[in-house]
Amino acid sequence: MKATMRMLALAAALMSVSAARLGVVQTEGGQVQGTSHGVGLFRSVDVFKGIPFAGTPGLWEKPKPHPGWDGVLKATEYAERCLQVTLLQTQTRGSLDCLYLNIFVPQGRKLSSNLPVMVYLFGGAFLLGASDDLAVLGDSLYDGKEMAERGNVVVVSANYRVGTLGFLSTGDARVPGNYGLWDQHAAIKWVSRNIAAFGGNPDNVTIFGQSAGAAGVSFQMLSPHNKGLFRRAISQCGVALSPWALQRKPMALAKKIARKVGCYRSDEDLMVACLRMTDPVGLTAAGKVDVLQMLGNGVVMDLLEHAPVVDGDFLPDEPGRLFHNAADVDYVAGVNSMDGHIFAGVDVPSINKKKANTTVEDVRGLLTGLTKEKGTAAVASALSVYSAHWGSVPDPAAVKKTVADIETDFLFLVPTQIALRLHAEHSSGGRTFSYLFNMKTRIPGFPSWAEAEHSEDLQYVFGKPFATPLVYFPRHRDLSRNMIAYWTNFAKTGDPSQGDGKVPVPWPAFTRTRRPFLTINHEMSESSVSYDLREDYVSYWVNRYSGLPSARQ
Ligand SMILES: *[C@@H]1O[C@H](CO)[C@@H](O)[C@H](O)[C@H]1NC(C)=O
Ligand SMILES: *[C@@H]1O[C@H](CO)[C@@H](O)[C@H](O)[C@H]1NC(C)=O
Fold first, then answer.
1. Is 339 labeled as catalytic in the residue annotation?
2. DSSP 8-state secondary structure symbol assigned to residue 542
3. Nearest atom of ligand 2 to the alpha carbon of 152
4. Crossing angle of helices 179-194 and 212-222, rounded to 10°
5. Which of 112, 232, 487, 492 is the pocket-test mutation for ligand 2 (most atoms within 8 Å of CB)?
6. Whose CA is nearest to atom 3 of ligand 1?
7. Which domains does the chain have, with CATH numbers?
8. Per-residue 3-state assignment (H helix, E strand, C coil) for 372-441
9. Is the pTM of this model over 0.85?
10. pLDDT tens digits for 64-118?
């Protein structure tokens, strides 16, 4: 029996060798050679890691073309991530020479050509992360092999600068900002110029991303600099309108960083000159999240300071006024039902404690922190909306879940609904699709009311239940198969229900007049399509809250 299995494995290995493979590929910078991974009978995926799409960028400069290389570049290892603070914020890691991308190309007996292309932008609060991030069981979470093979698309993942080096801005011409967005844009442009040599179709590019990467996708859509470079876009849990996605007081942040590295001067020119001469490692370390700042006042959202700015160039105007630039782009956007839980647990720790109750005062405190821009005016009205279903003796679990809902709505869900509406309103043909991902969390120890946490969608989109089957159940594979089908159908046709991927239920388009959304989990049927996601709450934030006057600051 064992011997037969071994024979079969050997035969499969030999046969997959005879799947086509790209070998050496000519790019604009020189030749690259990746590796070929057999995935079954006459099927393989060509993987190229660490291809430079730009040179080493200067400090707070736009990315510039790579000078190129002689001979064949071995594209077999991921490049270093862009210089950044570590997850625990105690050190820095990474390199200044970091503008590299990775390519995953599915192959059958014949060499693939003209395949749709999906370019992934990683998340990490514009502070952390890389295209090869979060390798837990072997491959990176963002490894594109499963998606490429199962969806028959070329998957590309790209690095971009983060933290102080990616997003510091003085809000003027001295240090305009948005370097990380320019990097993303440079990667997309490189794909447009070079992907045909890898079997991709440059006229069929979709960009997708999660969290800060999803906001990045949204910014790329809104920028006038991407005209014609991609046709479609997917934002998973983040849009340009998210309150954490835009830094509105960049000079104040630049001064704070300057103080930390000893560059503060009342003369701003001198301050910037000093910053420009400072060691990038020190600058990066100075960009770490300032936890002390939050104690006793404020919410975790306030800590996410490094972000894009309205610079008059990449973003010529407020994001809400740039949707005409995305009029012909097909767009999928959605959130996870508990995207805000991780933040809520920091702001109101009692929600995750079995032996503690969360009080109305806690809820009021959270709302006060989130709605600072409106002064105290918003707190009472928001509380009345969010407590409306509590009844006279609130169930402690209902109060706790409300706290998570408030953060999910404020940080993710409501901004996404606004983006979907603006996209549909400005469309000149680009289609719009909305989803809610609510698969029960796989993280042990969470309260019973917890649903889909921030980032939990990614494992399914990237096919982890297939890549590491032992830690998943069949229901996770069903979900993963369906998400890959919707995502890659969309990349092929602009409609998640049309294409060669079989889907459990058609996903109707969101339009100016009708607002359907697809609820994504492991049990999907006709009843997975509903309308007007969290309408009462969205309407509160969109109509009543926005109408309140801003507080003087
Ligand atoms: C929490 O509230 C419930 C219901 O109001 C009550 O029965 C319980 O004793 C409270 N628990 C604590 C730790 O205060
Ligand atoms: C995009 O790819 C799909 C699937 O391969 C194909 O049917 C479609 O014609 C392509 N679109 C363009 C504009 O090339």
1. yes
2. I
3. 5
4. 70
5. 492
6. 396
7. 9-356+403-547 (3.40.50.1820)
8. HHHCCHHHHHHHHHHHCCCCCCCCHHHHHHHHHHHHHHHHHHHHHHHHHHHHHHHCCCCCEEEEEECCCC
9. yes
10. 999 999 999 999 999 999 999 998 888 999 999 999 999 999 999 999 999 999 9
